[in-house]
Each structure stands twice: as structure tokens, then as C-alpha cells.
Amino acid sequence: MDIREIIDRIYRMPESSAVRLAACMSSLSRPRGYCVLEAGRVEPNLFFIGRGIARACISADGKKVTFWIGAEGSALISLKSYVDDEPGYETVELMEDSLLYVLKRSDLERFLAEDIHIANWARRFAESEFLRTEQKLIPMLFLPAARRYETLLRERPELLRRVPLETLASYLGITPVSLSRIRARVKSK
Which domain of life is it from (predicted)? Predict the structure, then answer.
């Protein structure tokens, strides 16, 4: 996915503003296992996935707990770093060899002051990220594990092919053994 597709998926704006925003972003190729964001480090820039998949996790009791998985078009950002200029709590690791687009905070802040269309794009981006967080959090609190898996199967089936089962189990808030049982039940239906 190229950067213009990503920009337009967030919010369509006049061509001149979209070209200006896209032109200030650089692309990076990084290998599987590369940590784009690291817990305890300030990373003020935004990254968008052009190709690949990533997970955000925290370390707890010596194990990594995955709380977010993103693929092409997704944004990688530490809100704590971006908003407060403080070290983030999450690590974002690439699960595949990936192409990333980087938007420097300084460039975005300059554009926010100069271009209302880019400011509206950034507002829509923030709203979308809040909505995604809410859509992930509420099911984790109220839906049983089997329903969370069925939702994942229906809404993001590509993750089953691209992400290790241990990572998916962590993302769903269950153990790998529980995920195996749920998968067996769903297949037998």
C-alpha cells in the first residue's frame, strides 16, 4: 500500500494538501523482528505500514503480552511519546519484513499550523485511533474468548495466516491451549 492510499483512507483532502503531506514522509525497509518503538524510549514520530505486519506488546512477568496487531495501512505511534514527549510503555515489533513510512512530528506540527486540510486529516486520524482502541477494549472486557476469536476470524482472517498462534492467543487474552480448543470447536461447527 503506498502512502497516498494510506493518507486517503484516513481522510480525503485536496490534492495539494495530500501531495504536501506525502512528500514529507520517507520510507524505510526493516526486517522481521525489528522494534520500531521500544518501551522506555521516546519516539515522537509516526509510522505507517505500507507492507508488513506489526504487534504492540508490553512485558509482564517475563512474558510479552500482545495488545495490538496492525497490518498494511495501520499507524505505529506511541501516544505517550507523541503527546507528552515521555518514554512509551509499549514495544512495537515487526512480524514480517516491512516497508514503513515515517512522518516526523516536527513536519506534522508545522503542517497543522499552515494547512487546515492537513489539520482535519490529523483530527480524523486521532478519532480513528481512539475508535480502534475502544473497539478492541470493549470486547476484551465483555465477550467470551470464543466470541473474540470468531470476531477475529470474521473481521481479520489474514492474521491467522500471518501471525503465530501464540501471538494471536496473547492478543485475544487467552492461552495458546485455550486458543487451540476454541479453534477445534469452531472448525467442527
Answer: Bacteria
